[in-house]
Amino acid sequence: MKSGLFAGLSFAALAASHSAAFAQDTNAEDIVVTAQKREEKLREVPISISAVTSDQLVSQGASRFTDYAGYIPGMSFSASSIAGQGEINLRGVTTALSPTASTAIYIDEVPTTTHGTWGGSGYKPIDLFPYDLERVEVLRGPQGTLYGDSTIGGLVKYVTRTADVDDFSGAAGVEAIAVTGGHGLGGGGRAMINVPIAPGVLGVRVSGFYQKNPGFITNVTTGRKGTNETEQRGLRVAARLAPNDDFSIDAQWLHSEFDGDGRTNIRLVPGSTEPLYGTDKYDFRLPEPTRQTFDLLSATARYDFGPVNLTSVTGWSRNRNVFNSDASSLMQGWISMLTGGAVTNGLGRGEGPTVNRKFSQEVRLASAQDQRLTWQIGGYYSVEDTDTVQSYIPYRTDGSVYSELLEIYRDEVQSRYTDISAFANATFKVTDKWEVSGGIRHSRITDDFHERAVGSMLSGSQTIPYFDDIKAKYKATTWSLTTRYIADDDLMMFARAASGFRAGGINYTWPGAQKSYDPDSLVSYEAGVRADFLDDKASIDLTVYYLDWKDFFILAFTPDAFEFGYQINGGKANGLGMEFTGTLRPAQGLSLTATAAYYGLKVRQDLPTIGAEAGDRTPTSPAWSGSLLADYRVPLSGDWTLNLGGGVRWTTHTYSRFIGDPQALRLDGYAVVDLNAAVSSDRWTLRGYVRNLANDRTFISAAGQNRGVQMNPRTMGLAIDMRF
Fold first, then answer.
1. Closest CA to 16 of 643, 527, 541
2. Which of 334, 417, 658, 667 has the highest count of CB atoms within 10 angstroms of its CB?
3. What are phi and psi of 391, to 5 degrees?
4. What does pTM read for this prediction?
5. Paired residues of 317 in beta bridges
6. Mean pLDDT by 10 residues, the chain (724 residues)
7. CA-wise closest residue to 497 among 437, 552, 434
8. How many whole angstroms separate alpha carbon 666 and alpha carbon 585?
9. CA 292, CA 190: separation in Å to the nearest integer?
């Protein structure tokens, strides 16, 4: 039973390259990004980067992270059985069992990634609707110098729309959604209004949305249909104050909610990916509702002094998650023991509410960009407070709480994670075409942990609590060296070496388990080229890289009968990889794009506790993945335009865990077709889309022993939007 009965005891829970792989007429010459904390043209940024604009998301009907992740080269997304949850994987930097994220998530310049075993840091992408988004930037490779902890794989950055201080505008839309095999129809609405309160000085933007996604899972135990129905809703208020050309403040408040009725972990025939009860059949006896809420407050102030400019970024966020799981198979033995054998078929549910509050402050000073030597220095401070309760509650067969029995296990954790960092980077223009740059960051991190655990699983008694207080401190220094050569408007080449790290963490309490584990580190060496040719009718973006990952976190187990899982250091992996995007524009309005990625990261020693052997590829990472896209835009009468598009996202097979793990599932490769069409004018847009045209139900991730998560069924949508 090397899966670890309580492995962590946690219910924790794009594609455009420089040439716009979400096929549209958006040209990379027009896209400006802030990946390096300054505005740059996408095609000139000397790192491996993709950017998806809001227009591209709208055309595809993409509202969830999973809707567009498969079109971004080098990215995979391992979906959780909990709706709205999953692990983001860039370049294969994952071990599938780590509680700590390898890819950070930012909203504008505010970090939202949580840390530690109890925070569920690796399992929470954020879904923002297109009315709120300007674009999504995906930075591949370690970004430790500018962004710090948990960026060893890369970074996903949501850039939101700021308020317009000059013009009044608004938009509204409705959408209908149907899912093959779904229980009823879904749909939603969204609206936005922008008002210049004091024209030229102060503007306010308000937007909101609601969406219901039909459920398609049937519970064969209770007979209920559509048990995985979800609802999303959100509200955002943004304000911009710009009294003159030198000074501005952008502030926002964002609130979103995600409610799910149940999970999607389908029971499998042991040792296979064959559904035991059939496609979309689920067999739990107790309800498993989930609720996830997210709040963000941020303010970014900028002042241009001329030779230098000052930026201050203040952020506060709160993640509140409540996850419930049917733990009857786990708890029946304990209920039988505690009742002296009188009850042998009791039920049980695991409950895991978590609240994470995070404050961050960054201040940086940067030189003007029109100098031969440019530089940037800054300081960063963040503090996270996380409160987590993990408990197992006994139930009778009629679904009522077994009040005669106290909780079989209850674990309460209060933690505080503090990060104090300083960073600097500089760029020197050797010639008009060639430049070199370097950066460094030093971080000091403190992890405070207080735990109170009680229950018969710990001591054989339900009344003896266990207390633990642990403090851990970590230091990390990251660096980057980059050179870029811009031959002309059609050719740019770069080479980059950079490092990143993930802070260590503290394990849940269990007799015999190691208290804490240290940071890991990763160094990337990469070179890339971006080129346009055939009179700008064709373009390529190619990056080749080598990763060297040391001391990554692996799972170990206590020697007792429970085989409790906890994290230690001990892994090493390295390997070559590649990301490619090519675009062809053979005719006016027609764009054809292909992406491909090779994942060569492999472990270099045997790791028996996680089932890894030297030479194994990291789990949830295919050998190859990619996409093909086509977009055709043609003018109609008046100001109307017809847009037709389609795409194929594909991947080779992968494994849910390292191959030697008894719970590892071989997940087959797939090729999924998506289609979209729209007619639009300056004011109106009518669009339709189909995702997963052939209704491919391949299993795309594992969800516990002999359970898996299938690809979402064919989804069709019809929407209309109005702008004013």
1. 541
2. 417
3. -145, 155
4. 0.91
5. 296, 358
6. 32 33 48 88 92 78 74 87 81 83 93 73 62 90 94 94 96 96 94 97 96 93 91 95 97 94 89 91 88 95 97 96 86 81 85 92 95 96 93 84 75 91 97 97 94 69 64 94 95 97 84 87 97 94 97 86 81 95 96 97 92 92 96 94 96 93 91 95 95 95 87 95 94
7. 437
8. 38
9. 20
